Amino acid sequence: MKNIAQTFIFFFLLVLIWAGITGDLDFLGIHCTLWSPYVLPSPSLVAQYLWDNTLNGKLPLSMLITLRRLLIGYAIGLIIGVPLGMLAARFRMMRNTVGVLGLGFQGLPSVCWVPLACIWFGQTEAALLFVVIMGTLWSVLLSTENGIRNVPPIYARAARTMGSSPIHTLLFVTLPASAPFVVSGMKQGWAFAWRSLMAAEIYVSVISGFGIGQYLHYGRELQRMHQVVGVMFIIILVGLLADKLIFSPVEMWLHRRWGTARD
Amino acid sequence: MTDNATHPELHDYPTARLSVEHVTKTFETQGGTVVALQDVSISIREGEFVCFVGPSGCGKSTLLNIIAGLEKPDSGRALINGTPITEPGRDRLVMFQEHALFPWLDVIGNVMFGLKQKPNLNNHERLEVAKYYLYLVKMDNFAHANIHELSGGMKQRVALARSLAPNPKILLMDEPFSALDAMTREQLYGDIQDIWQKRKKTIIFVTHNVRESACLGDRVLLFTPHPGRIREEFEVSLPRPRNINDHDLADLSQRITAALKGYNQANECD
What we know:
The complex is a heterodimer. Chain A is mainly alpha-helical. Chain A has helices at residues 2-21, 43-55, 58-90, 92-106, 114-121, 125-149, 153-161, 166-177, 179-203, 212-221, 225-258.
């Protein structure tokens, strides 16, 4: 309860200051407008934008389009990344080849793939997905490899003496044993996927659907800064919700099981 | 859950005799070749409790691993009921020095792990069997605890239940109590003798604690290193259950220690 109160008060004060310097508190006799609304829009302008465009369905529709891209791209990244990471952990040859490739590409911000993606796939969904996959794949691959290589060998020995076949050992011992690493890799992959998609949507206009990144882009083109800030809010909110609703509970469970919980 | 659990699986007492014939095993290390075992032969009866005792590097754990099928000898062979051992098998379960319990499973999940791979049991029967063994090691109140919540002694009790649950013919124990405090160990000495008499298994118990070996074994095999071989055998005919503080045990462990010292002195003269 104390945690929630602290967070709430902090954000309340933050918005209060923001409102104070953008003229939203005029009714209290505080006349202070440091910047014009197209430099820093006031909270009420942003709230108005979010409210109107939620009611008229534009934002919910664009959210659907964006989340669909994110989930598909992320899922493909996992489906390729986890098995490749397992192979890289198991075979030195894979580590020396795909492992090093992953290390290199992980250091490359995935927005750098946008020019090539546009030439290869055109202004299509595929181009956006490609950028998201490139953002997800490598960090998932590396953390899976790292996780599996950190599994104490005694687990596999114990399983073998209890009659586990190599496949059974991989699925029911090595994989669950590496879960803490793999999950933190999946979380990192999710963060990368989300960043990649926003970068891609800002750069690439696709006829097949207007994602929220594209709303941000046109907000800039039209000097509608309340739209830009409104979309930024949504992007932050999606990141927070994914963490609090999906990853945090899984991590909590892992920590409790493994005995690594912090307060 | 009580002693009169009903499942037929629990009234099956498989056991096996074991023989080791001229086993030699060497390791390459940075300091050169180490002869872990040189021409070691043993014969172990059905249901016998045998202790391997000796200083570190004497090959006792290596021999245990060979019997477990986790390592292969350079020459010679190990046989269970006359059949050569080539790989790990459910008939010979190992209990390690570190508990090696799986932290992603709870206590009962760990005990079920080996059972789940045993055919001809359904899940309900497996649960009954697992609960019986938790009762046997006095951990039935902790079936759904997480592994990290247990003390060292409780972890080893769960590890013992996990090794017993698939009903192996032979139980291989690799210094299972060496990381525990003395009081916990004393309790476990009593419990392991009790369980051995109830489940009638062949047990090989590896330790570097002479007194422990004298307390538990029907027979104590003293190993010495460089090269690893069996130096002497001691039959222990003291009545059970034995207590680690018994006077008769003190005499015996003195004899074993003397034999070990004799070896050390002979080596220093070389």
